[in-house]
Amino acid sequence: MASIWHSAPIFKGIPQRALLVLLVLGCIALFTDRPHPTPRGAVPAYSLRQILDSHPAFRAEPSPRTVSRREAVVARYLSLKASASALLGPEAGRAVARLLRLEFYNQAQKQRSAFSTPEAALEASESWLAAIGALQRGRKPRLAGLPLDSSAVISHWGDLQAAANALRLPVGVLAAIVDNEQYGGNKALGLSRGLREVADGLAQGLAETTGSAGSAGLISRTLGLAQMSWEDALRQEGRLRHFHAWDPRWPFPKTEAEARAALENPYLNLLFTASRLRGYLNEKLYLSPQDTRPLQGAWLYYLGPAWHNWPPGADEATWPYAFHAFFKGLLYQVVFSDPRKAALLPGAELPKLTAPGPL
Predict the structure, then answer these.
(1) DSSP summary character for residue 229
(2) Three-class SS of residue 305?
(3) For residues 332 and 352, is the Cβ–Cβ distance under 8 A?
(4) Which of 108, 207, 221, 329 could cysteine-pair with 176, CB 3.0–4.6 Å?
(5) Torsion angle, alpha carbons of 228, 233, 239, 244, to 10
(6) Is the pLDDT of residue 349 over 90?
(7) Which of 48-62, 135-149, 299-313 reaches the highest mean pLDDT?
(8) pTM of the model
(9) For 116-137, b where at least 16 C-beta lie within 10 A, e where not — what string?
(10) C-alpha dihedral sign at 246, 177, 219, 185
C-alpha cells in the first residue's frame, strides 16, 4: 500500500474506507452519463432518402429551403463515399456510407447518435477523411477538433502490431481502442485518469495482500493501456493458446492479483484485449470459435471499438466514441503501413519511426 500513497501524496492521511467512498463518489460523478442502450433489432436497410424523409430536419412541410438542404446532405454524403473509395478502396467507401446512414437513422428515430444534425456528422467525417488523405500524400494532417491521442498509440507501435498479428486482427482496430481509452482518460484535465490510477493502485495492493480487491475492485475492474477487465483476462487462456499467441514459457495468470499485474504490462494488456475482441468478432461474423483466419473489412473499425467500450450498443446506437473510432481505425491502418507516415502525427518523435527521404 505504501506505493499508492507515494504515487498519490494528496491522499496521505485519508483512511482506506474514506478513500473508497471518495473514489465511488468521483466515479458516479464522472460516469452518470454512461450510455445504457436498450436491446433492439437491427436497423432496417433503408435508403438514404428514406431515412432523410423521416428525419425531423426534413419531415416538416416541404419548402424550397428544406429540399435544398436535404439535397445538399445527399450530395455531401455521396462525395464522402466517393472520397473514401478513392483513398482506401470501395469497401471503405461502403463502410463510411453505412456509418453515416446509421447515424442519420438514429438521429431520425431520436435514438442515441453522435451528432444532432446530418451536417455535423458530415463535417466530422470530412475532417477525418481530409486527415487520412494528407497522410496518404505524405503531409502532416490537420487534426484540430478531432479527438485523437496519437502519442499514446505511436509510443506502443511494436506492441500493437505484435498483439494484432497474434490474433489476426487489423492493427487499426486495436490502435483505435487504445486511442479511445487514452484520449478519454486525458479529458477533464486528467481528473478521470487520476481517479482511475488511484483506484487501480488501491485494488492491486488489496489483491496482492488479501487475494481480492474487495470494494476497490468494484471501481477498478478495468486497467492498463486498453482498459482491459482483469476478469476477462483470466478467460483468455484457451483462445490465446489456440492461436499460439501465448509463450508457453510464461505461466498464465490464475488469480486476480496475477491478472492485474499482467495487465500493467502494455503488450500483455493489448494481447488480452485482442483475444477478447477476436472472440466477439468470430461470433459476430458467424465464424467458429476455433477459426484463426485473418479478419479483414473496414466495418471492423467500427464494430471493434464500439463493442470494446459498450457491448450492448455495438452496431446499433452511434455513440460518439464509436463514430470517431471508426475513422481512427482507418487512419491508424494507414499510419501503421509505413513508419514515415507515423512520423507525421503528433507524439511520433521517435528515432525508430523517423525515416529520411520522401514517402
Answers:
(1) E
(2) helix
(3) no
(4) 329
(5) 90
(6) no
(7) 135-149
(8) 0.79
(9) ebbeebbebbebbbbbbbbbbe
(10) positive
Any residues with CB less than 8 A from the CB of 264 and at least 6 apart, and which? 204, 223, 224
Section 274-291 average pLDDT: 95
Distance from C-alpha of 210 to C-alpha of 216, rounded to nearest angstrom: 12
Question: Whose CA is closest to 328, among 354, 309, 355, 352?
Answer: 309
Residue found under cell 431520436: 110
Residue 65 grid cell: 429551403
Q: Residue 27 contacts by C-beta under 8 Å, 6 or more apart in sequence? A: 195, 199, 219
- The DSSP bridge partners found for residue 229 are 222
Q: Tell how many helices (H) and how many strands (E) occur in the chain.
A: 18, 2
CB 332 within 8 A of CB 141: no
pLDDT at 46: 76
Closest CA to 52 of 30, 64, 69: 69
- What whole-number distance in Å separates Cα of residue 166 and Cα of residue 85? 29
Say whether pLDDT at 217 is over 50.
no
For the chain, give every domain's residue range.
Answer: 1-34+149-359, 46-146
The model's confidence at residue 178, banded by pLDDT at 50, 70 and 90, is very high
Find the distance separating the first CA and the last CA of the chain, reported in whole Å: 50
Please write the tens of the pLDDT for every residue from 203-216: 444 444 444 444 44
- Please calculate the CA angle 116-122-126 and round it to the nearest 5 degrees: 140
For 248-262, 263-277, 340-354, which range has the lowest pLDDT when averaged over its residues?
Answer: 340-354
**Mean model confidence pLDDT for the chain:** 81
Give backbone dihedrals phi and psi of 357, rounded to 5 degrees, phi first.
Answer: 95, 165
Q: Buried b vs exposed e over 269-284: b needs ≥16 C-beta within 10 Å?
A: bbbbbbbbbbbebbee
CA distance 146 to 144: 6
Q: Which has the closest alpha carbon to 316: 12, 7, 25, 43?
A: 43
pLDDT of 197 reads 47
Comparing CA positions, the residue from 190, 191, 220, 197 lying closest to residue 207 is 220
Kindly report the backbone phi and psi dihedral angles of residue 161, in degrees, each rounded to the nearest multiple of 5, phi listed first. -65, -45
For residues 347 and 147, give the distance between their C-alpha atoms in angstroms, rounded to a whole number: 14
DSSP reduced 3-state for 167: coil
Helices 90-108, 320-335: inter-axial angle, 10-degree rounding: 170
